[in-house]
Amino acid sequence: MAPEVVTTLQKKGHPVVNAAITLRDRELMHLARDAKRSRGAALTHDQELALPRLLAAARAVFWDVEDPTLIYVLDVRGGAADKAIMRVNWEGRL
What we know:
By secondary structure, the chain is an alpha+beta fold. The protein is built from 5 helices and 3 strands, in the order αααααβββ. It has one domain (3-87). Helix content is 34%, strand content 23%. A hairpin with a 2-residue loop joins strand 2 and strand 3 (80-87).
């Protein structure tokens, strides 16, 4: 996460334990699943590889107050905006 995002979360009372953004295989599969592919919303392999660059160049980052997530507005498909949702300080089962 960008330092500005970490600082903003701290000010909102959501201190970040680790600013690294990680994806498990499960999340990568979710990005490319058949349901998304059938409606043209799945990321390509090249787009998955570009996620660090896309997140760093996000148009905007919003905080969802109802579900503790960051919503990154990305330029993915030829200038069309897309989104990536990131859970903050989320600990899941491996």
